[in-house]
Write a structure and sequence with these properties.
This protein is α+β, with helices and mostly antiparallel strands and about 350 residues long. It folds into 2 domains: about 5-200, PPM-type phosphatase domain (Phosphatase 2c, domain 1); about 205-335, Histidine kinase-like ATPase, C-terminal domain (Heat Shock Protein 90), CATH 3.30.565. The protein is about 25% helix and about 30% strand. The protein is built from 7 helices and 17 strands. The protein has helices at about 5-10, 70-85, 90-100, 215-235, 240-260, 310-315, 355-360; strands at about 20, 25-30, 40-45, 55-60, 115-120, 125-130, 135-140, 145, 150-155, 160-170, 175-180, 190-200, 205-210, 265-275, 275-280, 320-325, 330-335. The strands form 3 sheets. A 6-stranded antiparallel β-sheet has the order 1-2-12-11-7-8, with no helix packed on it. The chain has a 6-stranded antiparallel β-sheet with strand order 3-4-5-6-10-9, covered by helices on one side. The N and C termini lie close together (about 10 Å).
């Protein structure tokens, strides 16, 4: 397999986007639980309208490294789902397997574990499809939700691929549990991706209007105490140490760089807790270009007295994003060990993927 083809086969593979809005009142939180090298997960929002996706595409594939054509077929199915608004998961998987086979690539596993789904963010309809060695279950209050048209079978005789498909209407609190073989060439399955549909209502909100450094310091201390206690009670790792750094850097940035210490301007602080904690801090300043942030680790920035706040937040929280021209910062404090949030920039699908493959062979 050429390096270019290897890169194409892994184009979509990577950490799923952890939080994606489902309408204005819900969020889909996706957590990978599989750590095997042959298990890949993908979650991505498409058709953005006012930063809210119209559809969320999710997929899981379990294939040994030796079966590169299998991974390529799965990647192609994701291209089809992203590129075609009306594409269904079942037809996309079968079409992808057929395309890869027609292009002359050999070695697609006949029993590979693969699943794909898309969620209509307006209607909350989940459409899914999977091979027999993979499963996708919707869990509501501890019970599996019956799927409409489940056991509908789609078979491609040329590639000997069997796909099961179905759909259901999701409700807040539902979990989507994806399972696949725990190890290559074994029948034992375990959860590899768990998605939860949770509400986005804030449980805490406070307006700050500090007049001096003493008042801003007191406000930061009080908010850190409150949020730290909330997260510790909810079972977050290292809550106190992480929260104090995040709260201090976030609010000081809003006061110093946003409001420029203007006592007539306010700072809004709000949060909600679920799978993770979502903290929002909004100032009344002019905003800033958050697409151009200096890395404080660069040699030219090491001696600067400022510019480390966002870097600290990103590493202690796990995810950070901005809205309203930089006046509102949204910080994702992950329940477990902090990590980088998967970037949500647009994925560009090659317009003629089959011709691209043929040029690499």
């Amino acid at each position: 397999m050429t390096p270019d083809l290897q890169q194409l086969a892994r184009f979509i593979n990577g950490p799923p986007v952890r939080h994606l809005p489902v309408g204005k009142d819900l969020s889909l939180v996706s957590l990978e639980s599989g750590d095997a090298a042959w298990i890949d997960g993908f979650v991505y929002g498409t058709g953005l309208r006012d930063r809210i996706p119209t559809r969320i595409v999710s997929a899981v594939c379990s294939a040994d490294e030796a079966f590169s054509a299998t991974r390529l077929a799965w990647t192609t199915a994701m291209h089809l789902l992203l590129a075609e608004p009306d594409a269904l998961p079942c037809s996309s998987i079968l079409h992808a397997v057929q395309l890869v086979s027609d292009a002359g690539f050999q070695g697609i596993q006949s029993n590979f574990a693969c699943g794909a789904a898309w969620l209509d963010c307006t209607e909350r309809i989940l459409r899914l499809a999977h091979t027999p060695d993979c499963s996708i279950a919707c869990i509501r209050r501890g019970e599996a939700v019956p799927l409409n048209a489940m056991n509908a079978q789609h078979c491609s005789k040329e590639t000997d691929t069997l796909i099961l498909s179905g759909w259901c209407l999701l409700e807040p609190g539902d979990r989507i549990v994806w399972t696949a073989p725990a190890q290559a060439e074994t029948a034992t399955r375990r959860p590899v991706l768990v998605q939860t549909l949770e509400g986005t209502g804030f449980e805490f909100s406070k307006t700050l209007k500090p007049r001096d450094e003493t008042e801003i310091g007191d406000a930061i201390s009080a908010l850190a105490d409150t949020l730290s206690a909330t997260l510790e009670a909810a079972g977050f790792d290292s809550a106190d140490a992480r929260v104090r750094l995040i709260i201090e850097e976030g609010i000081l940035n809003a006061w110093k760089h946003g409001n420029r210490k203007d006592p007539g301007k306010s700072i809004q602080v709000r949060w909600r807790t679920g799978i993770d904690c979502i903290l929002e801090i909004e100032d009344e300043g002019p905003g800033f270009d958050f697409h151009r942030l200096d890395d404080p680790r660069n040699a030219d920035n090491l001696l600067k007295l400022c510019g480390r706040g966002i870097f600290i937040i990103r590493n202690y929280a796990g995810g950070i994003d901005w809205e309203k021209g930089g006046r509102l910062v949204r910080i994702t404090i992950q329940r477990g060990t902090a990590g980088q949030e998967c970037p949500t920039h647009a994925l560009h699908c090659h317009p003629n993927l089959v011709e691209c493959w043929k040029g690499m062979k």
